């Protein structure tokens, strides 16, 4: 006797189809969460209401962002074919057979998970299009166009950034402390003050040739929701974590300032013979793992990654490629986040994180490090980011992300007011990791012995690397 009659079989098929459709829709929603913070639509202007100040803030020379009248100049070398052009006019070469996008004939997926993920995203795009909603690509393109109209140009040549001799790091610099306020700094000849419009578009900062050097990223559209559901819980997690850690003197006082700071992730170049997970005590590791495992930290990291992917896709693809190669070779290395292209993260626990003038010379020189500011402080009166090489003082609001080549540009903060709090989170990749992969998964001396390079040949390769690195700072104006 048949278990199912034809009518029952048809009903069962319909149920399976309905359940599959519901699962696909839910998976599509989950898949789009990485873009959610950035792709909510147009920005909204939100008025910032600071704590009542004892006196009015000083009047400072203010930069009015405007497009640069410079000519485009020679285009940079062709970026990764799978990355969309970051800004209008930034040329991209056609894809090669080795890097076909999923819609190209002959494309094959690495695995079934990648295939299913792509199909869910495609169905989500088609659903949004049929519902009259704007897709993520169109939204990101609009964000880039808005940012382009907000460009600020500085009198600096990106080609003169102080990369070290190897091309895999910055130059170590001993710098004196600087506690001057924004008004004192901007009283110097040539210095400018860059205001930040909360809820406004991103601000690209370009050199004399129109190369993108620094990005002051916009807040998510739903700013109040971002502050209440991400930033405030994250700050509480940081405060709670600090109370459970016994910091060493080295962690309390370091080159960046006199506040507790801890890093977690993958490192190489500080004496290690192979890439390693950073060593932490059991108690500290438990606290740091809880921090990076929280939904608030994951959303903050995802937002940083989405911003990089939107505004500098070539740099994003380069970081992503490095991560893929490194972790395939060394599966014992732990990622802080499944969706982050940076290898390490540092939490500056505050409660008054005000950094001294410094460069993070061991970080990758041809990449950006995102800095996320948090806390309760009046960003118009303190906490500004100072970039003395560019003669800029930039307002740095809580919940804002600023991207900069931290291995190359001197950077620090203006003091905040008494009783205020400030925390920050940074992500980065050690230049030593990039060098280890580039050397064929070995140290510098072993690579030179294996390849038999003379000093002149090695010097020429390093020089070429420094020149090639400029492509990650694309000409946008």
N to C succession of SSEs: HHEHHEHEEEHHEEHHHEEEEEEEHHH
Principal-axes geometry comes out as globular
Count of folded domains: 2
Structural class: alpha+beta
Q: What's a quick, concise take on this entry?
A:
With 477 residues, the protein is α+β, with helices and mostly antiparallel strands. The protein has 13 helices and 14 strands.
Description:
There is one protein chain. By secondary structure, the protein is an alpha+beta fold. The chain has two domains: 62 residues, no CATH class; 317 residues, 4-Layer Sandwich (Double-stranded beta-helix), CATH 3.60.130.30. The chain is built from 13 helices and 14 strands. The strands form two sheets. It has a nine-stranded mixed beta sheet. Strand 6 and strand 7 form a beta hairpin. Helix 1 crosses helix 3, helix 6 packs across helix 9 and helix 9 crosses helix 10. It is globular and about 55 Å long. The N terminus is likely disordered.
Label this structure with key terms.
477 residues; alpha+beta; Double-stranded beta-helix; 5-stranded mixed sheet; 14 strands
Mind sketching the topology for me?
Elements: H1 6-31, H2 33-36, E1 62-63, H3 112-130, H4 136-148, E2 152-153, H5 182-186, E3 192-194, E4 203-206, E5 212-216, H6 223-243, H7 249-252, E6 261-267, E7 276-277, H8 282-293, H9 295-311, H10 313-329, E8 344-348, E9 369-376, E10 385-387, E11 392-394, E12 401-404, E13 412-413, E14 421-428, H11 431-438, H12 444-451, H13 455-468
Parallel strand pairs: 1-3, 2-4, 3-11
Antiparallel strand pairs: 4-5, 5-12, 6-7, 6-8, 8-14, 9-12, 9-14, 10-11, 10-13
Region (Disordered): 31-141
Biased composition (Acidic residues): 32-45
Biased composition (Basic residues): 116-126
